[in-house]
Amino acid sequence: MRPSKRAPDEMRPVTLERGVVRYAEGSCMVTFGETKVLCAASLEERGPGWLRGTGKGWVTAEYAMLPRATHERTRREVNSGKPSGRTQEIQRLIGRSLRAVVDLHAIGERQIVVDCDVIQADGGTRTASITGAWVALHECFAWMMKRSIISVNPLRDHVAAISCGIHQGKPVIDLDYAEDSAAETDANFVMTGSGGIVEVQGTAEGKPFSEEELLGLLRLAKAGVANLVEKQKQAIA
Where are the alpha helices (DSSP H) in the chain? Predict the structure, then answer.
């Protein structure tokens, strides 16, 4: 039995609430069970300097965990002078995931920055961030289209992410902290609404996992991402 009493293929309750930040061009509060992330998309009229003159825009992300998002207070990274390696890795993952489904030429020479701030962490903060960031980005593009800043929606597909792992010898989906900290294998899957794979991150914490186990986790992830995409569609309807 899982610590949460869920079935192996049962996800935590997921909510996606858009339009929660007054000043941001797009925003979404996403919850995966007890994990809560606030995503806000901001339009910047100037893109990165290295794209100047290309007619191409950029989508990037920043990720942070609030001091009391975890059981004990963590120091704000701004006070240490630079983000941790984990923070940099996660925000790059979020940016790559979003860019995989965006027509960057349709943005023009502008930049969209999606801030993902973890309010409460109980496992799966990066997967929740990606899923909620897509909704915030969709809202930002809708805001831009309404004001004739762009003529077409640059989004080509949905993108969402889910964690899967092997816990007590069994493949399970959407690990919370209790499972994540004790899992034999921990993996994150980023996939599009049409079923394309954007990124897979998988690590054996104990014994190596087999090809069959990896395929089993992939099957769980495909079903989980399909569920998340339906929730995204409901959120933006």
Answer: 85-99, 125-146, 177-180, 211-236
Joined tokens for residue 119 = 């309010």
Is 31 annotated as a binding-site member?
A: no
Tokens describing residue 127: 């997967």
47 appears as a binding residue in the annotation: no
The pLDDT tens digits for 158-178 are: 999 999 999 999 999 999 999
How much is the pTM? 0.96
Residue 125 assigned as binding residue: yes
Would you say 140 and 26 are in contact if contact means Cβ atoms under 8 Å apart? yes
End-to-end CA distance of the chain: 37
**Residue among 67, 183, 177, 178 nearest 123 (CA):** 177
Q: What tokens does 15 get?
A: 């909510």
Instruction: Tell whether 68 is in a known binding site.
Output: no
